[in-house]
Specification:
The complex is a heterodimer of chains A (335) and B (307). By secondary structure, chain A is mainly alpha-helical. Chain A has one domain. Helix content of chain A is 75%, strand content 0%. Chain A contains 16 helices and no strands. The longest helix of chain A has 37 residues. The two termini of chain A are 33 Å apart. Chain B is α/β, with parallel strands linked by helices. Chain B has 11 helices and 14 strands. Classes of the chains: A mainly alpha (335), B alpha/beta (307). Chains A and B meet through helix 1, helix 2, helix 7 and helix 16 of A and helix 1, helix 2, strand 6, helix 3 and helix 4 of B.
C-alpha cells in the first residue's frame, strides 16, 4: 500500500458520546474477570458442585422435620442416630423437637460451612491465583493505568471477582438452602429467626470473601507465575491445619484456647462462623445437658484472638497488595 | 489556545538518579515527535505526564489539566499505546478493545459500537475475533492503537508504535497517525526511527540525559543550510575545484559532475559563479543543502556530550 492510498483509505471519525463516572470502572474489571473465569471448564464444575451442599442442607432440614412428625415412633430411632452422627448433637429421647429446630438448623450450617471451606480452597486457588499474576506476566497493566483506573479501583475489581465466586461457594448456596428448607419444611421457626439466620449466613460468608480474597490477591501480586501463587495458597491453607492438629493433640485444651489455637486460618473462620451463627449461646439456652453437644462445638478457642489473627492477616495482605499495585501503576507505562 | 503539553521545570528523581532535569516545554496541539537515545528520559516523561509516576518537582499540564490534581480527568482524555504487547491472554481483539472502552468509562452499547468502529479504522477485519496473542506484530500494534482510540481521546501517547512492523504495516501505521493528526487528535510520538518522525510530525522534541536538547518545528529544522551547497556542473572539474579553493571555498565531496562545498560565509555564492567563469566550467545547478533531522539530532547530542 502506498502512502497516498493508505492516507486516503482512513478517515477517523470522532465519537460524540460521553464517558461515565470514572469511579465506576471497577464493574468492567469484575465483569471481565468473571467472563474469563467461566471460560474454563474447571471453574464451571467447581461452581456447579458447590450446589451439592444445598442438597445436603435441605436433606438434613427435611430429616429434622420428619423426625418432628415421627417422634416417639420406632422410625424416629434411625433419624435420631443419623442427625446425632452428622450434627454431633445427642438429641435422642427429646420429644419437643420444635424448640431445638433453630439450633439444629444453625448447627447444620456450621457443619456445611466446614465442607464448603474445602470448595473455597479450590475455587479461590483456581480463580484468584491469576488475577494479578496474569496481568503482570502479560504486561497488561498499561491498559488499566492509562485509563481512569486507580490502584484502589483495580484492587477492588479484582477482589470482587474472588468474592463473586466465593459467594457461589458459601453464602449463596446457604441462602438457597434457607429458602428451600423454609418452603419444604416450614423453616427454623419464626420469620424473625429465618431472617436472623439468613443475615448471620451472609455476614459469615462475607467474612470468608474478605479474608480469602485479600490473601489470594496479595499472593497474586507477589509474582507473575500463577503456579507459584497456587502453591503458596495451598501451603498457607494446609500447613497451619497440620500444625494446628499436632498442637491440639500434644497440648492441653487450656493452652490451645489462646493464640496457639489460632494458627489455622480455616479453623479461625470456623470459630468465628460458630460465633456469628450464635450456636454456643443457642445450645446453652436449651435444656440439653452440655455433654450432649460438646462434640459439636469442638475445642474452645477464644473468638477474640481468632478474630485478631484473621484481621491482622487480612490487613497485612491488603497492605501488601496495595503497595504492590501502587508500584505497578507507577511502572505501568514503562513495563 | 490550550497547549497539549506544558512543563515548567519538571524534575523526576529515582533516588540519586535524575531522570528528568527541570524540563520546560510548551507544545501546541499537533503531531509531535519525541526523540532521544535510550535513557534520555522519554519514558519517564510520558509516565509523569500520564500521572502514573509522581514528579519530584516542577509542574506540568496535559491538555490544560494539572497532572498532580487532575489525573483521572487527564486519563479520560488521553490514549496510550505502550511499547510492549500488553495484551490479555485469551481475549479476542474485539474483547480487548471493548474492555479498554469499558475501563475508560464507556457504557456497554457505546463501547461495543465504538470497538467495531475503531477496529474497522485500523484495518482489522475478521481477525478481530481471534485471540489477540495469535496476532502478528503489526496487528498487535494496530490493536493497541485501537484500544487507545476507543474512547476518542484528544491526545495520544505513542511509544514506538512501528516497532517490529514490516514496511507495509509501518506505512499503514504512519498513515493512521497522520490521519489522526488531521482529525484534530494531538499525538506525542516517541520513536527511535527518525524517518517515521520526519514523515508524520510537525514538531520535534529531542531529549538527552533527562533534558530537552532541542525543540521546534520540523520544517525549521529542515531549513536550507546557509553555507553548505551542492554544485552540479560540466567542464574541467580539476580547474573548477582549484578555483573554488583559491576563493576560500572548502570542497567536502566530489563526484562526477557534482561537488558538495562549504562557502566561507553565508551569501558568498558569487565566489562559485566567479570560479566557474574563471575555470570555463558550466554551472547546471547551485542548491543549498538542507540539514536533516538526523543531523540536528546528532548535533544536539554532541552539544550535550561536550557540555
Amino acid at each position: 500500500m502506498t502512502t497516498a492510498s493508505a492516507d486516503q483509505a482512513h478517515h477517523y471519525q470522532r465519537w460524540q458520546g460521553t464517558l461515565g463516572k470514572s469511579h465506576w470502572t471497577w464493574p468492567a474489571i469484575v465483569s471481565n474477570g468473571i467472563t474469563s473465569a467461566f471460560k474454563h471448564a474447571i471453574t464451571r464444575v467447581l461452581i456447579l458442585t458447590s450446589g451439592t451442599t444445598v442438597l445436603a442442607a435441605v436433606g438434613l432440614f427435611y430429616a429434622i422435620s420428619l423426625l418432628e412428625s415421627v417422634v416417639g415412633t420406632e422410625q424416629a430411632k434411625g433419624l435420631y442416630d443419623v442427625l446425632g452422627t452428622l450434627l454431633k448433637i445427642d438429641i435422642s429421647g427429646i420429644t419437643r423437637l420444635a424448640e431445638f429446630r433453630d439450633v439444629l438448623w444453625r448447627s447444620t450450617f456450621l457443619m456445611i460451612t466446614k465442607i464448603q471451606m474445602g470448595w473455597v480452597l479450590f475455587v479461590v486457588a483456581r480463580i484468584g491465583a491469576g488475577l494479578i499474576a496474569k496481568d503482570l506476566k502479560a504486561r497488561a497493566l498499561p491498559i488499566y493505568f492509562s485509563k481512569p483506573v486507580t490502584p484502589a479501583t483495580y484492587l477492588f475489581g479484582k477482589w470482587a471477582v474472588v468474592a463473586f465466586f466465593v459467594a457461589f461457594a458459601i453464602p449463596i448456596p446457604n441462602l438457597i438452602s434457607v429458602v428451600l428448607g423454609t418452603v419444604l419444611t416450614g423453616g427454623p421457626g419464626t420469620t424473625v429467626q429465618i431472617l436472623g439466620l439468613a443475615l448471620d449466613l451472609v455476614v459469615s460468608g462475607l467474612m470468608v470473601c474478605v479474608v480469602s480474597g485479600a490473601i489470594i490477591l496479595a499472593l497474586s501480586s507477589a509474582t507473575s507465575e500463577q503456579r507459584y501463587v497456587m502453591v503458596a495458597w495451598m501451603a498457607i491453607c494446609f500447613l497451619p491445619i497440620i500444625a494446628q492438629t499436632i498442637i491440639d493433640k500434644s497440648l492441653p485444651a487450656d493452652v490451645t484456647s489462646g493464640w496457639l489455637g489460632c494458627i489455622s486460618l480455616r479453623d479461625d473462620i470456623i470459630v468465628l462462623t460458630d460465633r456469628l451463627l450464635h450456636i454456643r449461646q443457642a445450645l446453652a439456652a436449651t435444656s440439653l445437658p452440655a455433654e450432649r453437644f460438646t462434640q459439636a462445638l469442638g475445642r474452645y478457642v477464644d473468638p477474640g484472638k481468632a478474630a485478631t489473627v484473621l484481621c491482622t492477616v487480612t490487613a497485612a495482605a491488603i497492605c501488601f497488595s496495595w503497595r504492590r499495585v501502587v508500584r505497578f501503576s507507577r511502572m505501568a507505562s514503562t513495563v | 489556545m490550550t497547549h497539549m503539553l506544558e512543563c515548567e521545570r519538571l524534575t523526576k528523581h529515582y533516588g540519586r538518579i535524575v531522570a528528568l532535569k527541570g524540563i520546560s516545554l510548551a507544545l501546541p496541539p499537533g503531531v509531535v515527535g519525541l526523540l532521544g537515545p535510550n535513557g534520555a528520559g522519554k519514558s519517564t516523561l510520558i509516565s509523569v505526564l500520564l500521572g502514573q509516576t509522581p514528579a519530584t518537582g516542577g509542574a506540568a499540564k496535559v491538555l490544560g489539566l494539572d497532572i498532580r490534581r487532575r489525573q483521572r480527568a487527564i486519563r479520560r482524555r488521553i490514549g496510550f499505546v505502550p511499547e510492549n504487547d500488553c495484551l490479555i491472554p485469551g481475549m479476542s481483539g474485539t474483547g480487548y478493545v471493548y474492555f479498554a472502552g469499558r475501563l475508560a468509562g464507556m457504557s456497554h452499547p457505546d463501547a461495543m459500537q465504538r470497538t467495531h468502529e475503531v477496529l474497522d479504522y485500523v484495518g482489522m477485519e475478521e481477525a478481530r475475533y481471534r485471540p489477540a496473542e495469535q496476532f502478528s506484530a503489526g496487528m498487535k500494534q494496530r490493536l493497541k492503537l485501537a484500544q487507545a482510540l476507543v474512547h476518542d481521546p484528544d491526545l495520544l501517547f505513542l511509544d514506538e508504535p512501528t516497532n517490529g512492523m514490516d514496511p507495509q504495516g509501518r506505512q499503514l501505521m504512519l498513515s493512521l497517525i497522520s490521519d489522526l493528526g488531521r482529525a484534530g487528535i494531538s499525538v506525542l510520538l516517541s520513536s527511535h526511527l527518525l524517518p517515521d518522525v520526519e514523515r508524520v510530525c510537525e514538531r520535534v522534541v529531542i531529549m538527552g540525559g533527562g533534558e530537552v536538547l532541542t525543540e521546534g518545528r520540523l520544517e525549521d529544522m529542515n531549513k536550507p543550510h546557509p553555507t553548505l551547497y551542492r554544485v552540479d556542473f560540466t567542464g574541467d572539474a580539476a580547474a573548477f575545484r582549484r578555483r573554488l579553493i583559491d576563493g576560500g571555498v572548502r570542497v567536502l565531496e566530489q563526484t562526477n559532475g557534482c561537488l558538495q562545498i562549504a562557502l566561507p560565509e553565508a551569501n558568498a555564492q558569487r565566489t562559485v559563479l566567479q570560479a566557474a567563469r574563471d575555470s570555463g566550467a558550466k554551472l547546471i545547478g547551485l542548491q543549498p543543502e538542507h540539514s536533516s533531522l538526523e543531523e540536528t539530532f546528532m548535533a544536539a547530542l554532541q552539544r550535550q556530550q561536550r557540555a
